[in-house]
Design brief:
Radius of gyration: 17 Å
CATH architecture of the largest domain: Orthogonal Bundle
Shape: globular
CATH topology of the largest domain: DNA polymerase, domain 1
Distance between the termini: 52 Å
Bound molecules: FE2/S2 (inorganic) cluster
Number of strands: 7
Strand order of the largest sheet: 2-1-5-3-4
Number of domains: 2
C-alpha cells in the first residue's frame, strides 16, 4: 500500500492505496463517493467521469496513485449543499435522465464542455458528450438540458476551479465566481452528496413513473 494525498471536492484526503487500485475504485470504495459510477471499466461508457485538475477524465482508466497531489472533482462537488447545481436542475427540468446511471458522468462531462465552450451548438454538444454513453434517453433531452444550462451562463475561475452560475442576461455582467462546494466539516469523505440523494430520488421517481405508465 502507498500513502497518497489528493484533494477531493476541495477537501484534502490522505489515504492508502494498492498499486493496482483504480481511481474510480478509490472514489467509490474508501472515499464513499458513490456518485461516480462504474460501468464498463474499459474507458468506453463515461459513467466514471470526474475532473482531474479541472480536466474531464474517465476514472476507470487511471490508477489512484496517478492522482497523487492532484485535485479531483466528482459529481458530488457540483451541488451546493442541498441545492443542485444549475446544470443538474437543467437535467431535471429537461428530463435529461431516465435510469440515471450515466447521469453523473454526463453532468461532469457537460460541466467541462460548457467551460470550454459556453455557447455550444447542438452538434458541438453531441460531439462533446460522445465519450459518454446513455442507454436510455436517446440523448435528445440530455442535449436540451445542456443547451438550457448554457443559456443560463457560465463562469470560470483563474485558479482553475470552475462553476456555472444561474444568471439572467441582465445579470451577466456581474457574474459570481463560485468554487465547487467542499465537503461539509466532519463529513470527511463518507458523506453522501445532495446529488446522490437527488439522483436516487429521481431514479425512484423514474421507476415510479414507469410503473404508472406501465399500469
Ligand atoms: S466505467 Fe469508466 S468509462 Fe465506463
Ligand atoms: S443510461 Fe442514461 S439515463 Fe439510463
Amino acid at each position: 500500500m502507498t500513502k497518497i494525498r489528493i484533494e477531493v471536492n476541495g477537501q484534502p484526503v490522505d489515504t492508502d492505496v494498492a498499486p493496482t487500485t483504480l481511481l474510480v475504485e478509490l472514489l467509490r470504495g474508501p472515499l464513499a463517493m458513490t456518485g461516480t459510477h462504474q460501468g464498463c471499466d474499459t474507458a468506453q461508457c463515461g459513467a466514471c467521469t470526474v475532473l482531474l485538475d479541472g480536466q474531464a477524465v474517465k476514472s476507470c482508466s487511471m490508477l489512484a496513485l496517478q492522482a497523487q497531489g492532484r485535485r479531483v472533482t466528482t459529481v458530488e462537488g457540483l451541488a451546493h449543499g442541498d441545492r443542485p447545481h444549475p446544470l443538474q436542475e437543467a437535467f431535471m427540468a429537461c428530463h435529461g435522465l431516465q435510469c440515471g446511471f450515466c447521469t453523473p458522468g454526463m453532468l461532469v462531462r457537460s460541466y467541462r464542455l460548457l467551460i470550454d465552450n459556453p455557447n455550444p451548438s447542438e452538434d458541438e454538444i453531441r460531439a462533446g458528450i460522445s465519450g459518454n454513453l446513455c442507454r436510455c434517453t436517446g440523448y435528445q433531452n440530455i442535449v436540451k438540458a445542456i443547451l438550457a444550462a448554457a443559456a443560463e451562463g457560465i463562469e470560470t475561475a483563474a485558479d482553475g476551479s470552475y462553476a456555472i452560475s444561474r444568471m439572467s442576461a441582465a445579470a451577466s455582467r456581474r457574474r459570481t465566481i463560485e468554487r465547487p462546494r467542499p465537503l461539509p466539516a466532519g463529513a470527511g469523505v463518507s458523506g453522501v452528496s445532495a446529488l446522490t440523494t437527488w439522483a436516487s430520488q429521481t431514479f425512484s421517481n423514474s421507476v415510479r413513473g414507469f410503473w404508472l405508465v406501465a399500469i
